[in-house]
Amino acid sequence: xxxxxxxxxxxxxxxxxxxxxxxxxxxxxxxxxxxxxxxxxxxxxxxxxxxxxxxxxxxxxxxxxxxxxxxxxxxxxxxxxxxxxxxxxxxxxxxxxxxxxxxxxxxxxxxxxxxxxxxxxxxxxxxxxxxxxxxxxxxxxxxxxxxxxxxxxxxxxxxxxxxxxxxxxxxxxxxxxxxxxxxxxxxxxxxxxxxxx
Length: 197
Description:
Number of helices: 2
Strand order of the largest sheet: 5-6-12-7-8-9-10-11
Oligomer: single chain
Structural class: alpha+beta
Mean pLDDT: 91
């Protein structure tokens, strides 16, 4: 009987913890910002505050009916950036952030779902300003993350991102190394990058 009670207690704690994490990821814990508030921009394309990383508002669709994604998720920003800055529509207008990278595509080949050249991390081409970077999912974010490279130097890149979390920054810096002729952005979750040619 005692083992049954302990098992039930452990299951209850796990369920409550899971439910608590789900709720916290949907609400705005940072009272300094309002959902939809402009935080930053790159080439005139704004980054908006989303509150909790799982907060979902309406779908953002352009006047010509192109799906940009859910306001104000990371995918919505990168698709809006490519649409407004490059006049680029992705052939596949749907998918989670991690799905932007297709592991079956060879380094430097066309990703037909995105209409962009795909490079792996590490890859044969050094990343450039405007490249779209893709991060894999994690324990707390199974959908992955996408961002745009906003600055490049010899040993670093800076990204601009939407929805890094209620206390996250719209800009983040990662180191870059050249390893045996391949360029590696130093993040264990960074799968690769996409580029408009």
